[in-house]
Amino acid sequence: AAYKAYARQVGTVIGAMPPHGRHVVELGCGTGWVPWWMQCGLGVGVEVTYLGVDRQPECLRVAREKNQHYA
């Protein structure tokens, strides 16, 4: 339930952004599902600059692997 509520909040924020110049900084990014979700939901041709920050090196490693094709 908490995951679905968070996903709705993220979707609302991203949907309200202008189509160009979207910049997202996520503190506590974990394994990096937000950039993947953004690209899937926003579609091809929408430019998004994303910076994920996490204090767990293993989470950052997984996030980089998961999202390397979106970079």
Which structural class should the secondary elements be placed in? alpha+beta
DSSP strand (E) fraction?
Answer: 15-25%
Distance between the amino and carboxyl termini: 30 Å
DSSP strand count? 2
Task: Identify the strand order in the major beta sheet.
Answer: 1-2
The share of residues in helices is: 40-55%
User: Mean pLDDT, rounded to whole units?
Assistant: 78
Largest sheet features = 2 strands, parallel
What is the 3D form? Answer: globular
Rg (CA only): 12 Å
Order of helices and strands, N to C? HEHEH
How many individual helices? 3
Poorly predicted runs of 5 or more residues: none
Quick structural gist:
The protein has helices at residues 2-16, 33-42, 57-67; strands spanning 22-27, 48-53. The protein is an alpha+beta fold and 71 residues long.
